Amino acid sequence: MIKSLLKLFRPARHKADAPPERTKLFFDERPEVVYAVGDVHGCYDHLRRLENQIFEDASAISGRKWIVMLGDYIDRGPKSVSVLDHLMTPVGEGFERFCIAGNHEEAFLDFLEDPAASNGWLHFGGEETLRSYGISKVSSRKEVLRQLLESYVPEEHIRFLSNLPSLIACPGLCFVHGGIDATVSLAQQSDRVLLWKRPQAGDLPVPEDIGLLVHGHTPVPAVDFALRRINVDTGAYMSGRLSAVKLQIGNSPMILQA
Questions:
Q1: Could you tell me if 125 and 141 are in contact, meaning their C-beta atoms sit under 8 angstroms apart?
Q2: Cβ distance 100 to 70 under 8 Å?
Q3: Is 209 within a domain?
Q4: 217 in any annotated domain
Q5: Integer CA distances (angstroms), 239 to 64, 70, 102, in order
Q6: CATH number, residue 57
Q7: Which residues pair with 66 in a beta bridge?
Q8: What is the DSSP string of 98-134?
Q9: Total count of domains within the chain
Q10: Does residue 22 lie in a domain region?
């Protein structure tokens, strides 16, 4: 059942060994304000507190308002299921919410497609996610494990995770989970780069025509502002700080934190 659902909801693979490519969303107009939220990693209570700050901060702002979630909603923290349930519900009045796929979502889907007690995902946050679904023990027998997953992981979660885009862009702003390949256009970016790339010495700068790249994925002690790039992942599951950056037309970026 899990495998058949994944075939239904996830894009078809182009090659036997190639990962499915996700949708990329491009908008012709920039909203008045965007709040980009870093990696939640199962920290549901932090997310709710941060959202309340966002709603309060935005109460006097007119025009289009976005919340962009930068991926990695599950794993490591204790309440992955609560986070997914929440992200699937309507956001506060006057807002649009967009959720980008992270590498942890992709790893979870790969595990659902081929569950095994030896899968590496279990050791970088997967066990915590399974516990949040009510699965306390990972069976070494694949069929037993598959039956547990079919019983505990809702179809709606698989659909939601399978359909997350890998990139969102509007004039002057680009949102991804991991990073980009500065040598190719946004439309040509591979999901492998968008979900897994980390900043490193020698990287080409973000091209000026892209504008500001906003991402998560690589934990930093505080929101990191670099040349045409902002990293919003402050490691909520280990630091206790979930961060967002406010990007409003005509104003400097502002940090919110819970």
A1: no
A2: yes
A3: yes
A4: yes
A5: 32, 18, 19
A6: 3.60.21.10
A7: 34, 96
A8: EE---HHHHHHHHHHHS--TT-GGGGGTHHHHHHHTT
A9: 1
A10: no
The total of other beta-carbon atoms located within 10 Å of residue 254's CB is: 14
Question: What is the spatial distance between Cα 193 and Cα 178, in angstroms, rounded to a whole number?
Answer: 7
In contact, 51 and 92? CB cutoff 8 Å = yes
Residue 13 domain-assigned? no
Tokens of 228: 């045409």
**What is the helix, strand, coil percentage profile of the chain, to 5?**
35, 15, 50
Question: 13: left (phi > 0), else alpha (psi -120 to 50), else beta?
Answer: beta
Could you tell me the residue range of the domain that residue 137 belongs to? 2-7+27-257
Q: How large is the C-alpha radius of gyration of the chain?
A: 18
Q: Could you give phi then psi for residue 98, rounded to 5 degrees? A: -120, 135
Tokens 């970088």 correspond to 124
Whole-angstrom CA distances from 42 to 96, 128, 170, 211 are 22, 9, 28, 30
Q: Which residue has the tokens 């590496």?
A: 120
How far apart CA 11 and CA 101 sit, in angstroms, is: 14
Place of tokens 């406010």: 246
What pLDDT score does 148 carry?
A: 95
pLDDT in tens, the chain (258 residues): 565 556 555 554 444 455 579 999 999 999 999 999 999 999 999 999 999 999 999 999 999 999 999 999 999 999 999 999 999 999 988 999 999 999 999 999 999 999 999 999 999 999 999 999 999 999 999 999 999 999 999 999 999 999 999 999 999 999 999 999 999 999 999 999 999 999 988 899 999 999 999 999 999 999 999 999 999 999 999 999 999 999 999 999 999 999
